Amino acid sequence: MVLHTLRLATVPLTFTTSRLFLKPSPTLSFFSRHVQPRKPSFLLRAFSNSSAVQDTPLTQTSSDSSAARPPQWKAAIDFKWIRDNKEAVEINIENRNSNADLEAVLELYENMVTLQKEVEGIREERNNVAKKMKGKLEPSERERLVEEGKNLKESLVTLEENLVKLQDELQHVARSIPNMTHPDVPVGGEDSSAIRKEVGSPREFSFPIKDHLQLGKDLDLIDFDSAAEVSGSKFFYLKNEAVLLEMALLNWTLSEVMKKGFTPLTTPEIVRSSIVEKCGFQPRGDNTQVYSIDGTDQCLIGTAEIPVGGIHMDSILLESSLPLKYIAFSHCFRTEAGAAGAATKGLYRVHQFSKAEMFVLCRPEDSESFHNELIQIEEDLFTSLGLHFKTLDMATADLGAPAYRKFDVEAWMPGLGRFGEISSASNCTDYQSRRLGIRFRPSEPLQTGPKKGKANLPPTKFVHTLNATACAVPRMMVCLLENYQQEDGSVVIPEPLRPFMGGIEAIKPKLR
Amino acid sequence: MGLHTLRLATVPLTFSTFTSRLFLKPIPPNTLQTLGQFSRHVQPRKPFLVRAFSASAAVQETPPTQASDSSAARPQWKASIDFKWIRDNKEAVEINIKNRNSNADLGGVIELYENMVNLQKEVEGIREERNNVAKKMKGKLEPSERERLVEEGKSLKESLVTLEEDLVKLQDELQQVARSIPNMTHPDVPIGGEDSSAIRKEVGSPREFTFPIRDHLQLGKDLDLIDFDSASEVSGSKFFYLKNEAVLLEMALLNWTLSEVMKKGFTPLTTPEIVRSSIVEKCGFQPRGDNTQVYSIDGTDQCLIGTAEIPVGGIHMDSILLESALPLKYIAFSHCFRTEAGAAGAATKGLYRVHQFSKAEMFILCRPEDSETCHDELIQIEEDLFTSLGLHFKTLDMATADLGAPAYRKFDIEAWMPGLGRFGEISSASNCTDYQSRRLGIRYRPSEPVQTGSKKGKASLPATKFVHTLNATACAVPRMMVCLLENYQQEDGSVVIPEPLRPFMGGIELIKPKLR
């Protein structure tokens, strides 16, 4: 029995303050400008970069899935903008390897517009008839008008029903349209992704190395076998120093990111499935990554991006409260349907894990600079831990539907003998905010008019949202265990984490 | 915007022994059914009564919804219940069932058991007859005699098949009905309902406030620490976000608790939070039915855990431990998920009763003769932790009607919550003796007597025994937050952080109202 004595060293933390927001307005504006919509039913948005999952062939393409059940919520998609920018949208859909059916969207949209006009026409006729009936009339003429009014009312009811159906179908089909893409994003598949940055070099080992699975077993840190019996494959227990390492990683990450003015959060891990959809994930279907709760409309979250995205749902924020920067800690749950092969070994792909996720809500004009801030924070964190990694500007076909641009960080995993994704930073522009209904009211122009109230307020705009992994614990553990292993089988703890795990400097083999 | 600068102070932590223990993990599951079916000292369990995660009697007393037709579904696993012991101790079991306010049908269990024993005898008789017929046929026989024997053998075989099928059905039914029998009860446990629970200890006194106090909900809002409103939109009622210092406080509570409990030789764990529903059942919880506390995953046989007791109980499932490896002491951190079906009223206000929360749970596997000592150790650890945090609390020896089916004895700790104006349960320590281990199949092999026989191998090994299991809350975060926020509030609206937690939250001494 070895007794380690641990110490927590002195580390400065910076703490942020709370912001003010308004939270009124449950209505969604239907036809607003600058649309970058999304894809729900055809292409699944995978949580991670695995294109194996993203390229899943569509199971139910045709329209029968759409019109049948009305959508439970409405995305504020700017159809006029899509129609007016047809070519750009078409090219974008192709570049992103999306199955979105732009033709159908436009056709449904035109039909809807036509039907709307028709409905308006009949309403007008009905008003005219009603007006006529106010005057003195022959009984036969009155009877004729009553009959006409009745007919008009009947056809109006039918047409309005059709209009609702058409709008529902349009919603359904249009949600598959992905966000537009940043002009600098390389066009093509995974191979086309551009390297933005590379840090460090692979460590050279003078002894035969082990992978994290072997290290986890030898050091009594990870138990996959018991978890397979208790829960199923790809579940695990962390044990001994691994528990402290997880806590240290999260504590350290939180304290570092809080220094940059991010507000810490813990989140619900069960959410309504509509929130999952609004964030651009697909909670249903054969290949879904999402665990659903039996007998409810709730799901388990695959990432804290979902509950954090939902915090300001259906609200209008003050411009002065932006940006809102959050660092959220949660457990994440993923079915990993369709995942198989060597990439799924050990901790690399698991059903449940801990993660600290950054999330930013900001003005449209600021989202690009926040995207840069987020990737910078990630790079700083991984550099502090001494990892060898590269940052990629992901190619169009590798973007999930909500992302306007996505930077991935891939780190060297010596035991696996390859680079593996350890984090991802996406700018979703207004894709999510148009679904979640998150707006802000620009403070300029100043209220100068004599009238007070709504009329003087500038119109609201949709915020931009960004999300970025600060620390996905299992993949960090793969990196740390495999990169910091020693010839004697021990693993060195990187300097920055030591104060957060009571001063432990190395994980040593246990005495038997 | 106030900027606080935080420091993590230097604090010595003792780290527990990281020696991994040796266990045997052989025994394929199918041999289990035959193994401990008729062993001694049984304390079985109740499927009709839902075992509530907390002491809420409202949920426990749910009437059985489907009592009889349940035999239709075959049990997916077998509890090693000692039916012979139950039959031989009928009166004691009967009184125990009554004292514990259980719906278990002892008469039904014993009748099914007797039927099963009779049927077993009948099956054995026919097997013997069949062997006799087979023997007779080996000799020289008249063709007519042979034909008669062939016919007899055939009809014996047929009735054997039928009887064996009946036997399986009977065994299944017996399993189903017998699982409702609760564990036996420690002789010192007070008999009666909640009011009969005995106070073991009382620490501190209620703080006297010189100003109008707020409850934790108000403090959580005023200090921007807890957001129930957004969570009810995103997830549903009784969900929440923690924000700002509350996030650090949660981490500090868990870090501090882990480091304190590790000093006592407990091995830290994180656990899966999705488990097979059979494991939930084996731990004595009911994962199905209208009033279940358990969230199930759609389209699988998996559930969300309501407590880390479940996945930790499952770690050594179907295994034989070395006696020298005992006791195994774990401190497990997990999130817990509970439907809280049927919960309502003032007791459910704010953080007191929520669908999801963080918890550090202690779990011990030990030899039967050690479980009472371990139980005392667990409640002592809890009391020490809460005393360090300066809480006013009392420890109760819970009365018979307030015990879940698995508990042989249960100590609850109730702490004073000034905002709620009452004591509220903050932790619980149960000795489940062999109730869970008989269901999970966790045994050990006593090391004595020394192998002296000339034969090597199994024959000379002592018989295995079921371990005893115990579980105890080290820190259920939301209820600790209720206590800390409400007890440590100041007149200016701030909340003081208790001394022991400060080093774990960067030296913060006070949660102050934010500047707007």
Characterize this entry briefly.
Chain A is an alpha+beta fold. Chain A has 14 helices and 19 strands. The first copy, chain A, has helices at residues 51-54, 64-68, 79-84, 86-95, 102-132, 139-174, 212-218, 224-230, 241-258, 273-278, 305-311, 367-384, 431-436, 473-483; strands at residues 5-8, 12-15, 194-199, 222-223, 237-239, 263-266, 270-272, 298-300, 315-318, 324-333, 352-362, 389-393, 405-413, 418-427, 438-441, 461-462, 464-472, 491-492, 506-507.
How would you portray this structure in words?
2 copies of one chain form a homodimer. Chain A has helices spanning 51-54, 64-68, 79-84, 86-95, 102-132, 139-174, 212-218, 224-230, 241-258, 273-278, 305-311, 367-384, 431-436, 473-483, and strands at residues 5-8, 12-15, 194-199, 222-223, 237-239, 263-266, 270-272, 298-300, 315-318, 324-333, 352-362, 389-393, 405-413, 418-427, 438-441, 461-462, 464-472, 491-492, 506-507. In chain A, a hairpin with a 4-residue loop joins strand 13 (405-413) and strand 14 (418-427). Chain A is built from 14 helices and 19 strands. In chain A, helix 5 (102-132) runs antiparallel to helix 6 (139-174). Chain A has 2 domains: 79-175, Helix Hairpins (Orthogonal Bundle), CATH 1.10.287.40; 190-444 and 457-507, BirA Bifunctional Protein, domain 2, CATH 3.30.930.10. At the A-B interface, strand 1, strand 2, helix 8, strand 5 and helix 9 of A face strand 1, strand 2, helix 8, strand 6 and helix 9 of B.
